Amino acid sequence: MYLNKRKKIFLSIVFIIILLSYKFLFLSSSHRSLYQHNQSIFYSVFLSNDQVYFGHITEETSSTIILKDVYYLKTTNPTSPGNTLNEATVSAKMSLVKLGKEMHGPKDQIVINREHVIYYEEMGVDSTIMKAIFDNEKRQ
């Protein structure tokens, strides 16, 4: 009888360990990193709302992409009374903005919902955007 009680306790502990292992390995997979990225490489991430972010992908799961050292493009339209819509569009100025310089002072990290990502790609070190990022980092 005493041996039977010890056997039940042992089997209960083994069952709990198996259950917890299953939960950790399979049910929380959306919170584990799916891909390893070289964190010294900049990526451009294109979203479904036409926004593009540039930065280091530090983590990627099935539901999110975490981007650090983030930059984005800001468009300014110089308007003058005689400009038509096409003239204003052609004369639009693009500037590269470092995340964190806004009035609300966000952290230099964004968590992007993967449902909104169209694609992402490695950036070439000789691209115009990368040259602007390197220039910005030298000034800081």
Structure write-up:
- The protein has 140 residues and is α+β, with helices and mostly antiparallel strands.
- It has two domains: 1-32; 33-139, Roll (SH3 type barrels), CATH 2.30.30.
- The chain is built from three helices and six strands, in the order αβββαβββα.
- Strands 1, 2, 3, 4, 5 and 6 form a six-stranded antiparallel sheet that branches.
- Strand 1 (43-47) and strand 2 form a beta hairpin.
- The longest helix has 26 residues, at 2-27.
- It is elongated, with a radius of gyration of 25 Å.
- The protein starts with a helix and ends with a helix.
- The relative contact order is 0.15.
State the name of the first-level CATH class of the largest domain.
Mainly Beta
Class derived from helix and strand content:
alpha+beta
CATH architecture of the largest domain: Roll
Supply Rg. Answer: 25 Å
How do the helices and strands line up, and which of them pair or pack?
Blueprint: H1 2-27, E1 43-47, E2 52-60, E3 64-76, H2 85-90, E4 93-98, E5 109-113, E6 117-122, H3 128-139
Antiparallel strand pairs: 1-2, 1-6, 2-3, 3-4, 3-5
